[in-house]
Amino acid sequence: MTTTVFDVINPATEEIIQTVPLAGLAEVDAAIARAAAAYESWRAIAPADRSLLLRRFAAAVDADLENLAQLEVRNAGHTIVNARWEAGNVRDVLNYYSAAPERHFGKQIPVAGGVNVTFHEPLGVVGVIVPWNFPMPIAGWGFAPALAAGNTVVLKPAEVTPLTALRLGELALEAGIPDGVFQVIPGKGSIVGQRFVTHPAVRKVVFTGSTGVGKQIMAGCAEQVKRVTLELGGKSANIVFDDADLELAAAAAPGGAFDNAGQDCCARSRILVQRSAYDRFLELLEPAVLGLGVGDPADSTTAMGPLISAQQLKTVSSFVPDGAPVAFRGKAPEGPGFWFPPTVLTPDLDAPSFREEIFGPVVAVVPFDDEADAIRIANDTHYGLSGSIWTSKVDRALRVARAVESGNLSVNSHSSVRYSTPFGGFKQSGLGRELGPDALDAFTETKNVFISTNPA
Ligand code: NAP
Ligand code: MG
């Protein structure tokens, strides 16, 4: 049998850092069979013991945090500051859900003639498909609650970013998670990912990635009525009212749009500014963008690294052709690496750069007239993942937050993700929610049992 391999490239230097063998169909099927075999004993482990194993896994991640972070700097070009946060997020999510096995309560529901109780039963084997933009956190949001609920997990990292996922697989074993309970299978989406969809022993697919592939996965899962969670794309609005602290809003806007070089499904890639504050906001935004430190991601003062690949650089560049309405743009290194400067556009509302997800450091700024106009523009998209509202009026903040069709909003802030709160999209940004107190519901079936107290 010939094994295919993939050359993993450092996007800041274009050097090959490692060659990773890719699984073919036979290997995926073997891994799924191991996961199915491991399931009965994993679900039967006493709740406190499963909790303990997850806490040991979290401790192993913590002990390896710097190594994981450095791996992500090399493999994904993430800034070291971000990469440390990302490894820490895996640890925190494991710790958070390690408390779940002993607290995953069912209900006792009053009925006539007996006792009625509900149980949360695990599903079986869960397939997690991860994109390249946040390889560690997105993996953890899938595998930690899935394992806590008593499922076994097969995880496919994106082809271009397998290294931290492979390391997490090793750490799980070192921490005592039994063989077959959590397996990482690098391979092509069209082979490994697709097999999660078609293999009958995989009872649920957790997919994060593009809306196009997400639709195919949902359609494929329909064949077996397979459970599916989708976290897809976004084109989120950052709405700045003229009553906001404009200095703060302008200083924060680059972080909301350019973090992770804009390769963030939550990127606030459309900035909507009230017309009366529009010129002043752009004036304040310009130095914030020009001053952004773009360069070596291993340097802890760097704010933005490279794009992930030559392909991504080509895609992002296509949104900024010659003659594009560039208001201003920052700096980026010359030479090797997939660099693109942070760029601010002032396009028309129907321009592709205003409507389509770019997934790069390009932000579009447009004016609006009043609250109703802002809400209309913000909602005029088939996406609905995140967004921000900058205002000093609490009534306006609440009205607009309720009116924007989006799963994760922040007021006077750009933060979207906390492991203890739910995360997910409206409309074509996704289906279902990850993280937060209810995530285990997505990895279990509710079983209802009636016990007669008057047996005939
Ligand atoms: P993608 O092409 O959809 O790939 C995502 C994952 O799916 C990768 O592991 C990929 O494997 C796999 N895949 C590709 N085709 C498949 C198929 N036919 N069946 C099963 N799996 C398949 O997305 P991407 O280009 O990696 O990531 C960028 C996109 O993801 C953006 O649109 C972004 O908004 C979205 N995203 C959303 C969130 C969120 O939480 N909502 C988070 C991150 C990213 P290969 O690597 O082998 O192609
Ligand atoms: Mg792709």
Please give a structural write-up.
This protein is an alpha/beta fold and 456 residues long. It folds into 2 domains: 5-232 and 427-450, Aldehyde Dehydrogenase, Chain A, domain 1; 237-411, Aldehyde Dehydrogenase, Chain A, domain 2. It is 39% helix and 20% strand. It contains 14 helices and 18 strands. It has helices at residues 25-44, 47-63, 65-76, 80-98, 135-148, 163-174, 189-198, 211-222, 246-258, 275-290, 310-318, 352-355, 371-379, 394-403; strands at residues 4-9, 16-22, 108-109, 114-122, 125-129, 152-156, 182-184, 202-208, 227-231, 237-240, 270-274, 326-329, 343-345, 362-368, 386-390, 408-411, 430-431, 444-452. The strands form 4 sheets. Strands 12-13-14-11-10-15-16 form a 7-stranded mixed beta sheet, sandwiched between helices. Helix 1 (25-44) crosses helix 7, helix 2 packs across helix 6 and helix 3 (65-76) packs across helix 4 (80-98). It is globular and about 80 Å long. Bound molecules: NADP nicotinamide-adenine-dinucleotide phosphate (NAP) and magnesium ion. NADP nicotinamide-adenine-dinucleotide phosphate is lined by residues 129-133, 138, 156, 158-159, 188-190, 193-194, 208-210, 213, 216-217, 231-234, 265, 357, 359, 385, 425, 430.
